[in-house]
Design goal:
Length: about 575
């Protein structure tokens, strides 16, 4: 069994009990809310969707002050996090400059384009996100060993749906090594930002932020003594109202799971309301659903249990539910769990946890095991995938469009060949809200996928799959080479007649489809796949919107005319 999916055990015992704890880990009983408090929480829910940053923050303080009169210990949960930016440090070991090859297999990918090599060099971690109008951001880091103890963060951007990429940012980091990164895009009405949340090997958990328009970079420390984290964001249309939420493992008397959230108006900065969830854990991940629902999963530090918790109010420190044991560590070994919530309201939610899994104490290959929560009920097992007797299902990734309410979720895993006789491979696997469809192979036959961290899955602007991943060296020792791939019809076939600077979003669309071009859009026609024209408008403006609510759900072809020239695009109606 290779060491890339090992389970790090801790000898400390689980702390059980009530979810909310203060910063010292002391358990706090949350009293019943008064009618006035309940009204403030309901107002918070409305403001998160439609309020200004000032209104959101003022209401949070009103909740804190109301609790102060009832129970000061609960009021103390609403506490700012110190944002001192700590110095970074790290060390490393030498890596060779040449990468020996190993035998490759001949199977071609199903329905996917040729892999695009974005960077030739070591890759020690990566992530990807796509904005609502289709811009793709891929972040990858290299811990530069042998000649010092620095690291480098690379950001690649595509504004044409994955046809072409540019190295948008190249950010050196002095005297520190990355441990993990996750990308968040804050886009909509107002200033737009790309954030890379990073934990470093020295325990610093930071937000690194770029203005999408100007490229100006800033950074801020979220917390220290952090060993793992998961982040996600809500997505009201106004970017000042968007916030980022997180759960993370912070070393106290153990690797204790904590929760916090950024402040409205800070664009992913100024983190507040840090609390302990009252349990020692590891391998933590986080997801936001829709209209206030927040969810986290992690494994127990000594029990090996797979846990989950839900927060009913935008990561409010007093709104976490109880710990739920999703899978007992005595019966099942669970590794690297992921969690993703569909875009459905909290009372009617649908949340999926997927983990590498096998019987506790066995040496069997790891399968992918899913667990599903529906309508607030307990998690129940749901079949995901097995890679057979000669391979592990490793490092699962999930992604969802911010369009809502939707249920379609993109998932991916690395098929880790146990004896390394053939290449490790990427697999994509779509969840439609009920079941998983057939898996699809991803990647060219000559590319050996690295199995030490997840390949990142997402969708391009036309609603089809794309993936960022690293290849590897002999023996899967290091990631080497950053690649991008997409379904045929995403990067292939559209480029020949694509208007420069033209965008359309969201895709899939439910009601309104927004178009944007450098010059006035003269005509837009939408056809069924049988060639029947189902809609036509003549906007004669740069940024028209099309009402597609009357169309039957399915795939359509959109023909756009600008300055007498036409181009076609595939759109999806939900």
């Amino acid at each position: 069994m290779k060491n890339v999916i090992t389970f790090l055990m801790c000898s400390l015992c689980i702390i059980t009990g009530i979810a909310q704890s203060d910063l010292s880990g002391n358990q706090i009983v949350i009293p019943e809310r008064t009618p006035a408090l309940e009204a403030l929480y309901q107002k918070a829910k409305a403001l998160e969707q439609n309020g200004t940053a000032a209104e959101i923050n003022a209401n949070r303080l009103a909740i804190k002050n109301a609790w102060q009169k009832i129970d000061p210990k609960v009021a103390a949960l609403y506490k700012p996090i110190v944002t001192t930016n700590y110095p970074l440090g790290g060390d490393g070991s030498y890596r060779p400059t040449t990468i020996p090859e190993r035998p490759v297999q001949t199977k071609s990918p199903d329905d996917w384009d040729t892999d695009k090599l974005l960077r030739s060099g070591y890759i020690d971690g990566l992530d990807m996100d796509v904005t609502t109008d289709g811009d793709i951001y891929i972040a990858a880091f290299e811990n530069v060993t042998g000649g010092g103890s620095d690291s480098e963060l690379y950001i690649y951007r595509s504004t044409d749906g994955g046809n072409t990429f540019v190295l948008w940012q190249d950010q050196p980091v002095s005297s520190s090594f990355f441990a993990k990164i996750q990308t968040i895009t804050i886009d909509g009405t107002g200033d737009e930002y790309l954030l890379v949340y990073a934990s470093f090997q020295n325990g610093v958990f930071q937000a690194i932020r770029w203005n999408m328009a100007t490229g100006v970079m800033d950074f801020q420390t979220v917390a220290v003594d952090v060993t793992d984290f998961g982040v996600d964001t809500n997505f009201p249309g106004s970017t000042p109202s968007q916030r980022v939420f997180a759960t993370y493992q912070k070393t106290t008397s153990c690797t204790e799971v904590h929760s916090a959230r950024s402040t409205a108006g800070s664009y992913g900065f100024d983190w507040v309301d840090e609390i302990s969830l009252g349990i020692c854990g590891q391998q933590v991940e986080f997801s936001y659903g829709l209209n206030r629902g927040c969810y986290t999963t992690f494994t127990g530090a000594s029990s090996g249990n797979l846990y989950a918790q839900a927060n009913s109010n935008y990561n409010d420190p007093g709104s976490w539910g109880s710990n739920e044991i999703v899978a007992s560590g005595a019966a099942t070994e669970s590794l690297n769990p992921t969690i993703r919530a569909t875009r459905k309201a909290f009372a009617t939610d649908e949340v999926l946890i997927i983990a590498s899994s096998r019987a506790a104490g066995s040496s069997d290959p790891y399968i992918g095991q899913g667990y599903r929560r529906e309508n607030g009920a307990a998690y129940a097992p749901v079949a995901y995938i097995s890679a057979g007797s000669d391979a592990n299902v490793a490092h699962i990734d999930t992604w969802m469009s911010t369009a809502g309410p939707v249920e379609v979720m993109e998932t991916a895993y690395v098929r880790d060949d146990i004896d390394n006789s053939i290449n490790d491979q990427n697999r994509s696997y779509q969840y439609d809200g009920n079941t998983f469809g057939p898996y699809e192979g991803v990647g060219d036959s000559g590319v050996d996928v690295f199995d030490g961290f997840p390949s990142a899955i997402a969708e391009t602007h036309d609603g089809l799959l794309c993936m960022a991943f690293a290849a590897t060296s002999s023996g899967c020792t290091w990631g080497y080479g950053l690649y991008f791939d997409a379904k045929n019809g995403v990067t292939a076939g559209i480029a020949d007649n694509n208007f420069e600077g033209f965008k359309f979003y969201p895709n899939p669309a439910q009601d309104m489809l927004n178009l944007s071009a450098k010059n006035a859009i003269e005509n837009v026609s939408i056809f069924s796949l049988l060639g029947q024209k189902v809609l036509k408008i003549t906007p004669n403006q740069n940024k028209p919107s099309i009402n597609v609510a009357s169309l039957t759900p399915g795939v359509y072809v959109m023909k756009v005319t600008i300055e007498g020239q036409s181009a076609t695009y595939k759109i999806i109606k939900q």
